[in-house]
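Batch manifest, entry 17 of 40.
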Amino acid sequence: MDIHQLKVFTSVFKNKSFSKASEELHLTQPTISNHIKSLEDEFDCKLFDRLGRTILPTKEAEVLYSHSLEVIEKAAVLKEAVGEMKKDLTGKLIIGASSIPGVYLMPRIMTDFQKKYPSISFQILISDSRGIIDSLSRHEVLLGIVGAKIGNEQIHYLPFIEDELIAVSSPSLVKESQMTLKELVKLPMVLREEGSGTRRETEKFLESNGVFPDGVKIAGIFGSTDAVKQAVKAGLGVAILSKFSVADELKHKILHEIRLTDIEMKRKFFIVTHKKRTLPRLYDAFLKFIVAESKTVT
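Output type: structure tokens
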């Protein structure tokens, strides 16, 4: 039994006619008859007595009719309620993000999404890339954005936007506007902590160009991008950081970019989800939104 069968039954009951029900519902008479037969089989009773060209509802049909009207009405209300939900997403999004996308990209993305869905609220959990992947694996978050792929068969990585890692220093420490990578690593370097996507990608670029950890003079290691920037501003050393993270400092000449003549360090940020989890409608809408909006993020 389904709503469609009940609608056919109520039409036959009201019209006291298979042919009139056929005209009302734009169905063939054999289809009408099949639906009624299915209901009779399901309830193990006769619903209509056929008297020549007329039909009379049985007592069982009268009972079914009153309940059918209630079920059909509730189904219509339910459909309307679900339709209203689709018009306006509400709820709270909890997103895991590594420091660069969490601090420098998510505020803009959140603002744009809330313009479209004003009832949405956000909580951004910021950790390093490994921490976000671990949270996904433990089902503590449903969706994250990270700066590096970390081996985990449970996690699905969807390329998001491109970032560029650049070398920066305080204007007083380095005057040159360009140098080679091997010239750069002769200077004291300020690094992010292990597990950081920026640290992982930096090491990958350095090693692929013949520069290994024991060949780098480390002046300091810090647990956040802002801490690294403060150390570089103070003249502790040079750093390789996301261009997103130093855009304001470069604009106001607080930091100085050192262009590397022999290497270009570009990477992807990734949207990460658990392969075995189905995203709720709110998260699915947000995922589709950021994928569509990724081309506008600069």
